[in-house]
Amino acid sequence: xxxxxxxxxxxxxxxxxxxxxxxxxxxxxxxxxxxxxxxxxxxxxxxxxxxxxxxxxxxxxxxxxxxxxxxxxxxxxxxxxxxxxxxxxxxxxxxxxxxxxxxxxxxxxxxxxxxxxxxxxxxxxxxxxxxxxxxxxxxxxxxxxxxxxxxxxxxxxxxxxxxxxxxxxxxxxxxxxxxxxxxxxxxxxxxxxxxxxxxxxxxxxxxxxxxxxxxxxxxxxxxxxxxxxxxxxxxxxxxxxxxxxxxxxxxxxxxxxxxxxxxxxxxxxxxxxxxxxxxxxxxxxxxxxxxxxxxx
Length: 296
Description:
Blueprint: H1 2-23, E1 33-38, H2 42-64, H3 66-79, H4 87-109, E2 110-113, E3 120-125, H5 130-143, E4 150-156, E5 158-161, H6 164-178, E6 190-197, H7 204-218, E7 231-238, E8 241-248, H8 262-295
Parallel strand pairs: 6-7
Antiparallel strand pairs: 1-3, 1-4, 2-3, 5-8, 7-8
Helix pairs in contact: 6-7
Region (Disordered): 1-20, 61-88, 253-296
Domain THUMP: 138-248
Keywords: RNA-binding
């Protein structure tokens, strides 16, 4: 009995050790990518993220080299035909190989980095303009229902270890990069979005002071706009990592929600119905006038 008890204890220790090992992981410094939040179904949410990324990246890749890909495809198809192979078997084999190649491409393109926090996903995307990719993702996700599990996405430009010194450097980089005057000399209005997850070592007031110091150094004429800023500096402290970046029109775009605005859609549908009814009434009035004229 003692041996069985020891075996059970050892099993428990092994399980706990594995759980602890997975939890201590966090996003390493020096990365760029997309930070997603989800509603608890992390595997499903990750698949949604991969599918969206793959679709958008395929559009970019396809538009940049459409002609070359067509020529290459024809050459591959000609060289891939086996004279001794049945046509149906050839088609099946080519379809299978195409699917496998697409899967390999997707795996190489996207890499998940563990955050150590539930419902938080971080994905790096090879050869991607993160800001543009996130912007397009928000556009299509808010236009029509595309995501069941993903909630929000943020374009992360910089990652660092969670500490005051690294935080200060990260914020200064972002301010220097984005708080720049346009061709008319106008500076964008700005605000800060700060959130911590499983970490309370860095207080919000400290981060606000860092942003203020950086703005005074880089663009002292820039103004804060808390209601509808043109750019929003976001800083997410996720366990032992800092994720930072900038979003445009953050508030007006519903804080980069991955869900369509149902209220707006319902209003549009009601408006369309009202317009149809008005058109119908106008047609009926025209018909009545026409009938009266014919009677006269």
